[in-house]
Amino acid sequence: MTQQDGACDAPEALVGASAPGSRWSDLIETDRVHRQLYTDSAVFDEELVKVFGGESWVYLAHESQLPEANSFLSVRMGLRPVIVIRDKNGEDLHAVFNRCAHRAATVCREESGIAKSFQCPYHGWTFRNTGELVGVPWARGYDDLDKSKMGLTTVPRVESYRGFIFGTMNQDAPSVADWLGNAKPWLDYWIDRAPRGAVSVNAAAYRMGYRGNWKLAFDNAGDGYHPSFSHRSLLEMASRMGDSKDMSYFGKTPDDGPMKVYSLGNGHSVIDQRPVYDGPGSFWNNQRPQPGRESFEEAIRAEHGDDADRLLDLAIGAQINLSIFPNLLVIGNQIQVIEPMAVDRTQLTWHATTIGDVPDAVNTMRMRSQEDFPSFGEPDDQANFEEAQRGLAAPEAEWIYMNRGLGVADWQSTDESGVVVTAVTDEIHMRSYYDEWQRRMGETN
Ligand SMILES: [Fe+2]
User: Cα(100)–Cα(273) distance, rounded to whole angstroms?
Assistant: First the structure.
């Protein structure tokens, strides 16, 4: 259930006391944010409208989930129920609200499929998959029904960037490519690992919920500070395997190592783990143990000779954690989606991916790799999210700090495009996304 503990337990001076048009900016300081942003239903309700698709882009789906003409997929834009559809020509994409124009019931109750039209199960109104109302049962009962005004509400802008589909209610938003900005080369790297960039999201997803605010997941996705402590069991397992380096580099004062976090603008950030690896085959060589690993490697090396290192690396994650604000996380080989459900409830979905032009065995092993972190690492993170939400219930302790790295001059450098690169434990990812959060909420610094 939604907590109703927001505005009433924050100090009065914190609410509505800032510049005209600014509602929440007093809750965000350079180095800290107020607990109310994680506990107040009024903040949450506004986020669903403005942060999740009202002002700028929000991730909806991957094109491979809409494989043919008239394919549809049920998703959410914030809490808005939305159907993403591939048009009858098999190319263009659009989205409509899954909400009957008559009495509001959802017209589509399936997660995915093929449909030229949707008939509302409540009173039988029928809509083309483009949204037009085409059928109303017993129409004589209406004196003057203008069908052209009773279609499904459409999402005005839907755009795909190399298979990643985003939507916004803001007709004037920049293109997705412009908005991705400095995050684009990182997403390109991830896509281009696949031969010809052919990435597919598979039907099965790893879906889990936690009792905490959605931003706790975003706070964590760019956080290189916590793995040494939160994921100790994984690190210990990797170190027990002798020469396996996977994630063990987080355990040795990572600030002094070659891993970096990049603040990319528009709320996006990335952790780059690649510098701790060296050369072809090293992603694979340093992976934690996996079922069937040895026989898989033997077969790939026997059959593919000089190409084996490349193929083995493709069975392992991309070694970047890319966070695209507000709801898309590209981690390992997975596409992870953050779905806010209530101020203190969130659903996280990990979509496994396969790639084209590789032997089937590579994709099979890729799936085994993708079971790994969601099974053995994500539970650590989700426990932290829930325990943070529990801690946030104490109203007298008001602030969450994000000041690590702030003012540590020898950590940070800025390149010509404005990207800031800094030590991997810097909390710059939080400070940057809160800038974008404020912008979307209608507030500028
Ligand atoms: Fe983690």
Answer: 47
Residue 74 C-alpha to ligand 1 middle, in angstroms? 29
Instruction: Read off the pTM.
Output: 0.92
User: For residue 230, is pLDDT > 50?
Assistant: yes
Q: How far apart are alpha carbons 194 and 205 in whole angstroms? A: 20
CA of 239 from ligand 1 middle (Å) equals 18
Confidence of residue 11 (pLDDT cuts 50, 70, 90): very low
**What phi and psi values does residue 295 have, to the nearest 5 degrees?**
-70, -35
Q: What is the number of alpha carbons within 13 Å of residue 204 lying toward its C-beta?
A: 5
Ligand 1 mean position to 238 CA, how many Å? 15
Q: Could you read off the pLDDT of 100-146 as tens digits, one per residue? A: 999 999 999 999 999 999 999 999 999 999 999 999 999 999 999 99
Q: Among candidates 308, 249, 307, 251, which has minimal Cα distance to 274? A: 249
Share of the chain above pLDDT 90, in %: 82
Domains of the chain: 58-168 (2.102.10.10), 181-434 (3.90.380.10)
**Residues 266 and 179: beta-carbon distance below 8 Å:** yes
Residue with tokens 């509001």: 104
| Residue 283 alpha carbon to ligand 1 centre in Å | 19
Q: Please give the Cα distance from 64 to 162 (Å, whole number).
A: 11
**337 in Cβ contact with 39 (< 8 Å):** no
Helix (H, G, I), strand (E, B) or coil at 234: helix
Half-sphere exposure of residue 332: CA atoms within 13 angstroms, side-chain side: 25
- 139 φ, ψ (degrees, to nearest 5): -65, -15
What DSSP character marks residue 28? B
